Predict the structure of ABATE domain-containing protein.
Amino acid sequence: MTAATAPVVAAAPRFRTGAGRLCLDFLRTLRYRGTLDAIEELPDSAALLAWVVQCGPCGPCDPPDSQPVSDDPAQVRDAHSLREAVYELVTIGHSVGGVASSSFLVRELVNRAAKNPTPIPRVDASGALLWTASDVVSATLSLVARDAIDLVTSSAVNRVRECADESCSALFSDNSRPGNRRWCSMETCGNRAKKSSLRSRSAGH
């Protein structure tokens, strides 16, 4: 992306995290997937860059919260395609055939994204760790693709769950010891379910 007159990063929405894997957090940018209420949280380049800044290692742009970005519809479309390919790989990982039964095009799309250079670590004059990239979007999406490949080619894919809240259905990695986590977030979906259960019990008395 090159600087131009366009939306600024500060205007973009805040994104949900906490799925347990970078690639699963990326999947959550299509909220309420598969329903009539589906919300695209990455509609343009500004939103995509905002997700990268919030969720990736490169951190805020310089100057903070004021970096103008050019609109790059092709890069946004590529990000959407990567997200859907990752979603297919992760969900099919639970099937009988596993990831091997996924389509060649889906695997290659993720593989191509993983080939891109990733953010580079460096230490600054204060001794702090910083991450840089010539293209922070491409570099962060490369991390997403590599994380997805690591996930679906390991036993960790068996820990991926779908949120039990039917209005959410977001995927998350169940890293709890018993492996019986039901909600992607106890603060939102879990609390909503508890309140619904309490109302039902109250109505029954």
About this structure: The chain has a mean pLDDT of 83. DSSP finds six helices and six strands in the chain. Residues 73-92 form the longest helix (20 residues).
